[in-house]
Structures are given as structure tokens and as C-alpha cells.
Design goal:
Layout: E1 4-6, H1 19-25, E2 30-32, H2 44-56, E3 61-64, H3 71-74, H4 81-98, E4 107-110, H5 130-133, E5 140-143, E6 167-173, H6 183-197, E7 205-206, H7 221-242
Parallel strand pairs: 1-2, 3-4, 4-5, 5-6, 6-7
Helix pairs in contact: 6-7
Length: 243
């Protein structure tokens, strides 16, 4: 079990850049923040100092990048796939510039097609963007892999060379469904990925966040804990099979 603190609610008596270290000293395993800057477009130095405060405290910096997938049908539906790929290539280049001084192993990035119960039939396929996503500096890449629209995409990795040092974190439980996945299904999903890219390069994850919007409840909190317990048990089963 891990414990997360929202440093925009607690520890606010401390300056912003001191809160991650204080959270670590208090025993928390992860931190989250609401938008911490006074400006919508903060200076590069301000962003870099904030990122370094998190990683220097011993936390992994997660960079949420729905623009690399979700924006295909939400913002750039008018573009051809070729032109959309040019757009997100620029986005990845900008991200890499922003985190150029942070070690890749201290970061992970998350892409998604929105944590909603919609049909998702307009989602851009993973195969059409994965090569660009993998150019990001963060060591680990998290993405949905359990929901009905993307559950088949483990096969994409048969045709993709995972760069040395990269880790994938496929979602193996659905963050929008109140079904509790059986641990054996979780294990099967993990083994599918591991057989392709190597077990040392796979971490089991969740498709997306369970609470990505304030006030929106898609999955009951008690069921969330049951699903996470199934994820942990399934990961243990997969590890026994693979190792």
C-alpha cells in the first residue's frame, strides 16, 4: 500500500518547493499538486525548479500527456494522421526540452484517450503514435490496455522495438468499469506483454486515474480498492509464471 498527499491542500504553510521533501520526510510515497503556478505560462526556470523539487525529494515525476492520443479526435480531428503525427512530434520535443535536466529513470509519462465511458471508436490506434511516444525522455510509459477498445493492442509491441532502458506500464485493470477483474485475467494480460518485451520491462498499471475530475464518480471507492487488490494479486501470479 502506498500513501499519497496532495500538497496543494496539506503542507501549504511551507513554500512550494519545500513541500515535496517535507512530504517524503513525513512518510508519504507520492505527491500530487493542483496547478502550482501563478501564471498559465510559467517561465522555464520556474517549471524546472518545481520538477527538480519533486525528483530531488525521491519521487517519480509523472507527466500526463493526453495530447499525444486524446487530442487526435478532441482537437486535431480536422488534420490528416500524417499532420497529427507532426503536431505530437513537436509536443514530445517540447516535453523533452522541459525535462532535459531530469534523469529519465526519475520520470514516467502517461498517455490516454480519456478516462470516460464513451464509445471510444474515434481513438487513434496505439500503433499510429507509439514510435513518437517512445521518443519521450521519461523511462516509463503508461497507457490504457484493459478497456475494450485497447485491450488487443498488446500485439502492437510485436512490431515495435522497445528502446533500451524503456519500461512500459500497460493498464491491466479498467478505470471506468465497476467490474472487478479476476487476478488470473490480470496475470494473463501481464504475461502477454511480458512475453513480447521481456518481463523486466513491464509494470502492471491502471488504464487511467479513478478520480480524474472533481465530483465525477464512475467507480465506487470500495470497488477501486478491490480492483487494486486484484491488480496486486494478478501481478504476483504473473511474476511466478514468468520468473
Amino acid at each position: 500500500m502506498t500513501y499519497t498527499v496532495n500538497c496543494s491542500i496539506l503542507l501549504t504553510e511551507l513554500p512550494l518547493l519545500e513541500r515535496p521533501a517535507a512530504a517524503k520526510a513525513a512518510g508519504f510515497d507520492a505527491v500530487e499538486f493542483w496547478w502550482p503556478f501563478a501564471s498559465s505560462v510559467p517561465a522555464d526556470a520556474e517549471v524546472t525548479a518545481f520538477e527538480r523539487a519533486i525528483t530531488d525529494a525521491g519521487f517519480i515525476l509523472q507527466l500526463d500527456c493526453p495530447d499525444l492520443a486524446l487530442s487526435r479526435h478532441m482537437v486535431f480531428a480536422h488534420l490528416s494522421l500524417e499532420d497529427f503525427r507532426k503536431v505530437i512530434t513537436t509536443h514530445v520535443e517540447a516535453l523533452n526540452h522541459a525535462v532535459r535536466d531530469i534523469p529519465p529513470e526519475r520520470m514516467r509519462m502517461h498517455i490516454c484517450w480519456a478516462s470516460t465511458q464513451g464509445p471510444h471508436h474515434k481513438d487513434v490506434p496505439l500503433k499510429d503514435i507509439v514510435d513518437i511516444v517512445l521518443k519521450g525522455r521519461p523511462q516509463a510509459v503508461s497507457f490504457p490496455g484493459a478497456n475494450p477498445r485497447h485491450g488487443h493492442e498488446w500485439k502492437v509491441w510485436k512490431d515495435v522495438k522497445l528502446p533500451d532502458g524503456k519500461i512500459i506500464i500497460p493498464g491491466v485493470i479498467d478505470s471506468t468499469s465497476n467490474f472487478v477483474e479476476h487476478p488470473e485475467l490480470v496475470a494473463d494480460r501481464l504475461v502477454q506483454y511480458a512475453r513480447v518485451v521481456g518481463p523486466e520491462n513491464v509494470i502492471g498499471g491502471v488504464d487511467c486515474g479513478f478520480g480524474t475530475f472533481a465530483g465525477r464518480l464512475q467507480v465506487d471507492s470500495k470497488i477501486v480498492w478491490m480492483k487494486l487488490a486484484s491488480l496486486a494479486e494478478g501481478a504476483q501470479l504473473a511474476s511466478r509464471e514468468l520468473w
